[in-house]
Amino acid sequence: MTVCLDDPSLLIADSFIDGQWRSATQRFAVCNPATGETVAEVANLGAAETREAIAAAEQAMAGWRARPAKERSVLLRGWFDQILAHQEDLARLMTAEQGKVLAESRLEITYAASFVEWFAEEAKRIYGDIIPGTADRRSIVIKQPVGVVAAITPWNFPSAMITRKVGPALAAGCAVVLKPAAETPLSALALAELADRAGIPRGLFNVVTGTDAVAIGRELTDSAVVRKLTFTGSTPVGKQLLSQSAETVKKVSMELGGNAPILVFADADLDAAVQGAVASKYRNAGQTCVCANRLLVQDSIYDTFLEKFAARVAALQVGDGSDENNTLGPLIDSRARAKVSDMVEDAVSAGARIATGGETLDCLGPNFYQPTVLADVTADMRVFREEIFGPVAPVLRFHDEAEAIAMANDTEYGLAAYLYTSDIGRVWRVSEAIEYGMVGVNEVAITSELIPFGGVKESGLGREGSHYGIDDYLDIKYICMGGIAQA
C-alpha cells in the first residue's frame, strides 16, 4: 500500500538508534486496519539493539543535561515547528497504520505538538528552593534529570502518547529509549525524523521497533542505566512492568486502564449530555482509555436519554478513516473486534437489549463493528465491569445521587469520569466523592497539555502534561551549606 504523503521520506521502516537509521534482516508488517493492506515492513529488533540504544542514550545525556535550559528549549521548539509543518502527512500516516478517521488524526497531531511546545517552555522553569535555616547554614533544594528514560507507548494514540513522554524527558535533560507499539511504529519513526531535522542531538531520542515486547521490555526494566520507566497501556502489563522495575528501584509513571462513567442527572441539559456521551464514547471507535465506558442515567430521564442517544449513534458513518465522509473507523484488529462482539453477546444473553447496532460489518472488512447502544444493562455484566475498548455504550439506570456515586466507584479503575447536572452543590459533592484522577463536569473534552493527566487506584501512577508533568523526570537533591556564620 502506498500512503500519499507530500514528504514521502517521512514513511520510514527502520529503527532509530544513536542518530542512525538501523535496518534489520527480520521485519514485520504494519497493516492498515481498514483495508488489511501492508503499509510497510518494519525492522524487527530485540534485546541486543535495545542495549545499544540504552548505551547511546547514556552517552548522549552526559552533554545534554549540562546544556543551558534555554538551549534545550530552543531545540524542542524547533521540533514543535517541524511537527506542525508536517501535520497533514503525519495525520495521513497515522490513519493508514491506526485506522482512526483523518479528522481525529489531524487533531491528535495538534495535540501531540502541544506537549512539545509546552515542555519547551517548562525546560526554563525547573526551579529549586532555599529553605530558611540557622545562622551558620543554608538548606538548598535543586532538581536534576532523573537519568535515561524508557518509554513504552500504545497504538491508540501513536503520536500524542510519545510527545507527552519524550517532551518532558528531553526538557528535563534526560535521554529516551522509546518502544512504540508494533501495530503503529510509523508515527514514532516519523517523529524521530522530525526531531533529528530540528537538531535534537544524536542518541537523545532512540526508537526501537520490534514484535518481541517481552524481551525489549525486560531489557529496559533490567537495565541499571535506565532510571525511569513511563508506560501507557493495559493494567496487567503495567503491573508486570512495575514488578520488573522494582529490581532496580526505578522511578515509574503508569497510565493504565480505565472504566469511565458518565453520570447524567435529571436536572442536566439533556441534549448537551447526549452530545457529550457520543463524542466521548465513539472517539477513535471507542478505543481510548478515557472514553465513556458506562453511561449511568437517572431513571426519570432514562427512556428519553436512551432514545435521543441511540438516534445520534445510529447516524454515525462507519468506514475507512481516509474517507473524509466517515466519522468512525475500524478497530485495530480482528481480535479487538472479536472481544467487542463477545461482550455484546454476553450482555444480551444476560438480559440487555440492543437499542442500535450490535453487529459486525463484514461488508467493510474484518475489523469493523457497528456503533452500538445497549439498554437495560446491569452491574453484573462484563460491559459494566471490563474496559470495552470498542464502539459499544452500555446504559444503566440509577435512582439517586448516592446510588450514582456507588455505581461509579464500583470498579478497580479510576482514570476519568464525567457528570452532567445543573446543580452546583451536586457538582462539588459528586466530583469530590467519585474516585477518579480526572472529572469532567458538563464537558467531556477534558484533556490538553495544560492539565495533569492521570488516574488513581489501578489506573496508574504519576501525572503527564501540565507543570506537574515534568516532575516525574526529575530528582530532588538537598544541599546543606555550612560555615555561613561570620567568624
TrEMBL record:
<dbReference type="InterPro" id="IPR050740">
    <property type="entry name" value="Aldehyde_DH_Superfamily"/>
</dbReference>
<dbReference type="InterPro" id="IPR016163">
    <property type="entry name" value="Ald_DH_C"/>
</dbReference>
<comment type="similarity">
    <text>Belongs to the aldehyde dehydrogenase family.</text>
</comment>
<feature type="domain" description="Aldehyde dehydrogenase">
    <location>
        <begin position="21"/>
        <end position="479"/>
    </location>
</feature>
<dbReference type="GO" id="GO:0009450">
    <property type="term" value="P:gamma-aminobutyric acid catabolic process"/>
</dbReference>
<feature type="active site">
    <location>
        <position position="255"/>
    </location>
</feature>
<dbReference type="GO" id="GO:0005829">
    <property type="term" value="C:cytosol"/>
</dbReference>
<dbReference type="Pfam" id="PF00171">
    <property type="entry name" value="Aldedh"/>
</dbReference>
<dbReference type="InterPro" id="IPR016162">
    <property type="entry name" value="Ald_DH_N"/>
</dbReference>
<dbReference type="InterPro" id="IPR010102">
    <property type="entry name" value="Succ_semiAld_DH"/>
</dbReference>
<dbReference type="InterPro" id="IPR015590">
    <property type="entry name" value="Aldehyde_DH_dom"/>
</dbReference>
<protein>
    <submittedName>
        <fullName>NAD-dependent succinate-semialdehyde dehydrogenase</fullName>
    </submittedName>
</protein>
<dbReference type="InterPro" id="IPR016161">
    <property type="entry name" value="Ald_DH/histidinol_DH"/>
</dbReference>
<dbReference type="InterPro" id="IPR029510">
    <property type="entry name" value="Ald_DH_CS_GLU"/>
</dbReference>
<keyword id="KW-0560">Oxidoreductase</keyword>
<dbReference type="GO" id="GO:0004777">
    <property type="term" value="F:succinate-semialdehyde dehydrogenase (NAD+) activity"/>
</dbReference>
<dbReference type="InterPro" id="IPR016160">
    <property type="entry name" value="Ald_DH_CS_CYS"/>
</dbReference>
